[in-house]
Amino acid sequence: MSLAPAFDPAPLVPRNARILESKRVTAKERYFRLQLTEPLDHRPGQFVMLSLPGVGEAPISISCGPDCGLELELIIRACGSLTHALHQRQADDVVGLRGPFGNGFDLTEFEHRDTVIVAGGLGLVPLRSLIEPLVARPRQYGHITLISGCRTPADELYRDKLRAWAQLPHVDVIRLVNDTDHQPWDHEVGLVTAPIPHLELEIPRTLAVLCGPPVMYKFVIMALAARGMENQQIFVDLERRMRCGVGKCGHCQINQVYACRSGPVFRFADLASLPEALS
């Protein structure tokens, strides 16, 4: 008689993380830097489940690269009871943390390839975990083109990082807003699709990575396809409706696929039969 494998409670039990820094970065978003008790050992694109006892738990994208050691960086938008409560937490407060969870980016896929990264709104937050290792090793990963768009200048995240990346010889940064909203802005106004037809790309050696609001994906993918890019060359990061992190609650289910297990990073070719994934 075979015995069922022992149940491992580790993925379900939060461990403590201490807040080292908490600061507001936009009207809705707050930056957190956490002290961990052990390295997270995450892959770019993965997420953690962050919790406050008696309040709740929510999936939060990891916003630092894999080499962050015993610290973890997050940007959290206040959009519910838990996230509003997190916005009240300051340095030395403790939060609960599970993870990392999900399917992240495999960095070996990007070796000796150029990469076009399209980030809309909060999409820059999870994609920063990929950008950091790519820009740090240009001989290994090639040229990076980053198209970063947001609604207004006041909504732009990681402004200092965008400026620093733009100074690197192997990185092109294109910053856009939908509307200046009468605020100072020295960059482009328009949609993130606008620069794509004019990019200098070696299509056979180029990959594309997208993360942003659902309405963005269809039109960015159409623009990339018009340049000759195949579905196999495009990755999408679907930050959608995840709740448990382990594929049990069904909250993030897309037909037979669970975004928290098979994603949130998907190759677009694997989503061709799942049109609901991008809606």
Indicate the structural class.
alpha/beta
Name of the CATH class of the largest domain? Alpha Beta
Write the CATH homologous superfamily of the largest domain.
Answer: Nucleotide-binding domain of ferredoxin-NADP reductase (FNR) module
Largest sheet geometry: 7 strands, mixed
Radius of gyration: 19 Å
Number of domain units: 2
Q: What is the N-to-C order of secondary-structure elements (H for helix, E for strand)?
A: EEEEEHEEHHEHEEEHEEEHE
* Mean pLDDT metric: 91
Approximate helicity band = 10-25%
Tell me what the structure shows.
This protein folds into 2 domains: 10-100, Elongation Factor Tu (Ef-tu), domain 3 (Beta Barrel), CATH 2.40.30; 107-278, Nucleotide-binding domain of ferredoxin-NADP reductase (FNR) module (Rossmann fold). Helix content is 17%, strand content 30%. It has 6 helices and 15 strands. It has helices at residues 81-86, 124-136, 138-141, 159-166, 214-226, 259-262, and strands at 15-24, 29-35, 47-52, 56-61, 71-77, 94-101, 114-120, 144-150, 171-177, 188-189, 206-211, 234-237, 253-254, 257-258, 265-267. Strand 1 (15-24) and strand 2 (29-35) form a beta hairpin. The longest helix has 13 residues, at 124-136.
